[in-house]
Amino acid sequence: MSVLRWAMAGLLLLAAPVALAKDKPAGEAGTDPLSDWVGVWAASAEQTVTITRTAEGLFIDGFATWGASDPARVEIGAVNMGEFSLELPENWVGADGSVNFTVGEEGPLPPEAAGQYDCVIGMLLELPVLKVTDNGYCGGMNVTFYGEYRRHKKGG
Fold first, then answer.
1. What is the per-residue pLDDT across 121-139, written as a single tens digit (0 to 9) for each?
2. Which residue has the higher pLDDT, 62 or 155?
3. How far is Cα 97 from Cα 140, in angstroms, rounded to an integer?
4. Integer Cα distance of 156 and 137 in angstroms
5. Strand boundaries in the chain, DSSP class E
6. pLDDT tens, position by position, 57-111
7. Which of 22, 44, 77, 141 has the highest count of CB atoms within 10 angstroms of its CB?
8. Half-sphere exposure of residue 156, counting CA atoms within 13 Å on the CB side?
C-alpha cells in the first residue's frame, strides 16, 4: 500500500466512530475477545507497544524514539522520544477490531475531545498485524507510532 493510501486510511481510522464491544457477535464460550490484543508488538527497533489484559479492558503502553538506532545521535543526546500509558475500557474496542483514543492525563478520551496538540492514536488489529496511526503529536520531532506492528511476545 502506498504511503499516501496508508496515511489516508489512518486518517479515516482516526475519524471513524468507535463501535462498542457489546455489539460484537458472541464468541465461543470461555473465550476472551481481547486476548488477541495481548503481547509485545514492534514496528521497528524504535517503536513498541505492549498490551496487557486487565479486569476492565486493556492496558496499553507505547514507546517510540527517533534517532536511538544511530550511535552518533545517542552520543550527543539527539534522540527524540514519545510515550503513552493508559487503561482502555473493554467497551472502547470496536466490533471491527479497532480502537481510537486521545491520550488524556486521566486516561483515554474520545478522539473528538482532543485539543490541538493532544496525542491521538488509532489501532486496528488485523492478525498477525497491529496497524497503528497517530496524529503527529505523540512525541518529539520525527517521533511517530505510525506503522505495522508484529507481535514479538504473546502475553505482556
1. 999 999 999 999 999 999 9
2. 62
3. 28
4. 26
5. 39-44, 47-53, 57-66, 80-89, 98-104, 107-109, 120-126, 129-134, 147-154
6. 999 999 999 988 889 988 999 899 999 999 999 999 999 999 999 999 889 999 9
7. 44
8. 22
Amino acid of residue 76: I
pTM: 0.77
C-alpha cell at 6: 496508508
d(CA 113, CA 116): 10
- 77 alpha-carbon distance from chain centroid: 26
Phi, psi of 146 (to 5 degrees): -60, 130
Please tell me whether residue 111 adopts helix, strand or coil conformation. Answer: helix
41, 50 in Cβ contact below 8 A?
Answer: yes
**What is the three-class DSSP state of 14?**
helix
**Is pLDDT of 28 > 50?**
no
